[in-house]
Amino acid sequence: MAKGCQAGRELLRVLQEEVTLFKPDSRAAIEAALNHGPGAVIPFSVLRELRGILQQRESPFYLHEFLEGSELYLPTVEIPERNPVLVARLEKIKAKLSNEEYKRMTRNVNNQGRRHGTLADLAKQVQPIKKMVVTVFNFFVTVAAAFACTYIGSQYIFAESASRVLSSVIVASLVGLAELYVLVRTMEGELGQL
Across the beta sheet with 41-43, what order do the strands follow? Predict the structure, then answer.
């Protein structure tokens, strides 16, 4: 954070002319800056005091006119050396975390190096396919059964076979849509568990 400004020639000239009007502690800072020359650091408290003096004297000049050619003084920030004990401890923690990450990534790897899968692996791979085939077969059986039941049951309501077929198709479509809804919800739940 800036604590002062590096004085330009104009600011030093004004400070030299008005040095007697400043407080004693400000005079010491001004005299040190005058001895140093352009580029000397002037604290902001001295600049505030100079502004007050200019206002009291009702000077036609403003402070910003005297600050022309001056720059803010930003002291360099010294970065402290890192504690070697802390650095060693951090390295140990990093090594431990990377080792845990490696173990987490490789925990499901089987280190036996087998070339061929066992029968249990084949059963695990076939099980989802078997489940899908049973689900599709169940869907078709349900829709066909709904069509057949509606066709046979509608003979008591409709005399014409066209009306019976139409009502059977409508009921079979509704049952098929309901079955698809249940199927999608079930598969969505299974995918969420993976």
Answer: 41-43, 4-6, 71-73
Residue 11 in contact with residue 70, Cβ under 8 Å?
A: yes
**Chain centroid offset of residue 154 CA:** 63
69 in Cβ contact with 8 (< 8 Å): yes
Residue at 105: amino acid letter: M
Work out the end-to-end distance of the chain between its first and last CA atoms, rounded to an integer number of angstroms. Answer: 55
**Domain span holding position 20:** 4-73
Tokens of 158: 């409709």
Last residue of a domain, one of 73, 107, 132: 73
Joined together, the tokens standing for residue 121 give 């692996």
Determine phi and psi for 120, rounding to 5 degrees. Answer: -65, -40
**Phi, psi (degrees; rounded to nearest 5) at 5:** -135, 155
Q: Dig out the tokens for 190 from the structure.
A: 């299974």
62-107 pLDDT tens trace: 777 767 777 776 777 888 888 899 999 999 999 999 999 998 888 8
Helix (H) or strand (E) holding 6: strand 4-6
Which amino acid, one-letter code, is at 50?
A: L
pTM recorded for the entire structure: 0.38
Count of domains in the chain? 2
